[in-house]
Specification:
Chain lengths: 339, 339
């Protein structure tokens, strides 16, 4: 066979806001399989905010994405050829296939490729609610915020893959869930479809004081837990409503991903309110993934954990979809359809 | 008997920096003792930065200091009259006597007055290393920073009552202790007398970048724990050198006590470095005081925990000494001698 793989590489590093010119589409033949290898036809590519950080050269929590190599990314797909006894043609798998149509992997390394069951859970969900974003939500909520019944949990980017799961997991635990999202459509979805108690449209608020007033109405008993995906003015506003002994799970600060300064205006509130603020990266807590995926998978299979997907069809559209994600143009989990 | 008690009251709330005019010296006769009451002649008054927060009206973690009442404060002294079976004339006691020479208390309330043993520990130490400042250091260091042997712990206001204990307790646990203090004299004392590994004079650094470079030299393996007493530029500089999974115990932010803005420049470092930042108030953790005081008392009695005191003699000098404390003019634990 003479398959052609198309992939998207990082061509250059952005100075500030990234653009389509930072990416390059490359076609190369798929090599023959060596012993132990598996060839996967990727069905969906996951686009996630963390990828923006990897495009920079500077120090971050992970190695930068190398130039002229395929962009990093989570994928789901189907095994189409195998020289590995643990995988058969037709197996559905999740892995870190990158921004490409085919993925040739040495599947004898544990964990690079996971077989998944699509009887009750759609394949794409393994990139969202039952994948890294879902586990991210689960970790920050259960291990850092740890809400008690009756407490109030606020989450920013509430209509996204992570944020939507945070609020629904909080509701399962008897907490009040309040979202912050951009635009009336997203806010309506967060309340009516995801079942949050309230959602605030941050675009209606020009500063932290105004947003803080809206939070006061939506959180009459104050804020006990905050799951941070955005940073900047939104964090400032939440801190003005934080209760004593409140917890902030710092998951992302997308508002500063292009290098804009995003100072925290009043860190003395950490002391005044005896807050705990903790940053985390879900890939550093692999020991908790099985417990998280068990709960998430059960909730998705029984329809109790809802989510929405935005699918950009075709690998060539991945860069535009990614740039849109960084601007909040996606609605729910952003995927790229590859078949 | 017709004793006269002199006390200092809060006369007005400061707008920004406080001044001597915010205080008022008042003389009143000591009333006769009722059943259950104890009269204490205070020997020392403790001056502490937290008192600045109490002078404000706004929301804080504690009730504001009421106007026209005696200023709140910790004291040590001697029982001079008692109508309570648990206290005898001559007992040495620690309590919250306030800025006054005599203290008449209903000692049947548990905990308002504690008898202390001055055989091996000087009475004044119960206001410092074996009192609230010592327990504050102990709590933040052991319960939040929890250093492992070989880790590096940094503390600001390192020559003060809290900071000095933080570094010495860190050394006991096998950690590297690095102080930040104002001026060459204080830095020399922190290293030569308290036994810190290094101390940086923040007055030699005009901005966070410069201080951060000095921290890099003093902390060749980065910073694993930071005990925050100051805030502002110093916190920014420390965060630039924070290691992955580092912990910040937020105890005080004296640089913002007069209402100056003290933004945290780069909160995204909390995420990048997976930091944990936690604010605390030691009086909310009374269950840990016995364990803390046991260690602190043992270390002081055996000369392993060193400290220095600045004593301003005479109640009438308390306001000036307090204003000096807020400007860092004290050297070690600031006391007012009352006899």
């Amino acid at each position: 066979m003479s398959l052609i793989n198309r992939q998207i590489q990082l061509a250059s590093r952005p100075a500030g806001e990234p653009s389509a010119e930072n990416f390059r589409l490359v076609s190369t033949p798929v090599p023959a399989l060596a012993e132990g290898q598996v060839l996967v036809r990727n069905h969906y590519l996951s686009l996630d905010p963390y990828m923006r950080g990897r495009m920079n050269e500077g120090k971050s929590y992970a190695q930068p994405q190398p130039l002229d190599e395929v962009m990093i990314g989570g994928t789901v797909g189907e095994v189409v050829a195998s020289r590995n006894e643990h995988f058969q043609v037709g197996d559905k798998v999740v892995g870190m296939g990158g921004w490409q149509e085919y993925q040739l992997v040495d599947a004898s390394q544990r964990g690079v490729l996971q077989k998944v069951d699509t009887t009750h859970i759609p394949l794409s969900a393994y990139l969202g609610a039952v994948g890294m974003p879902g586990v991210t939500a689960w970790y920050g909520l259960t291990q850092i915020i740890a809400p008690k019944a009756g407490e109030t949990v606020v989450v920013s980017a509430a209509s996204g893959a992570v944020g939507g799961a945070v609020g629904q997991l909080a509701k399962v635990r008897g907490a009040r869930a309040v979202g912050i999202a951009g635009g009336a459509d997203k806010c309506r979805y967060v309340v009516e479809e995801l079942g949050f108690d309230a959602c605030i449209d941050y675009k209606e608020h020009r500063d932290a004081r105004s947003l803080s007033a809206a939070l006061k109405s939506a959180c009459p008993n104050g804020i006990d837990g905050y799951f941070e995906n955005v940073g900047g003015m939104i964090l400032d506003a939440v801190m003005l409503r934080a209760n004593a002994f409140s917890r902030v799970a710092m998951c992302g600060m997308i508002s500063g991903y292009n290098g804009e300064p995003i100072p925290m205006s009043a860190p003395q509130l950490i002391l005044v309110n005896r807050m705990k603020i903790e940053g985390f990266i879900v890939s550093e807590h692999m020991e908790l993934w099985p417990a998280a995926l068990k709960e998430l998978g059960g909730l998705v299979a029984t329809g109790k954990l809802k989510y929405r997907e935005s699918v950009a069809q075709g690998l060539e559209n991945a860069p535009e979809a990614f740039l849109g994600l960084l601007k909040g143009r996606n609605f729910g989990k952003q995927l790229v359809g590859l078949i």
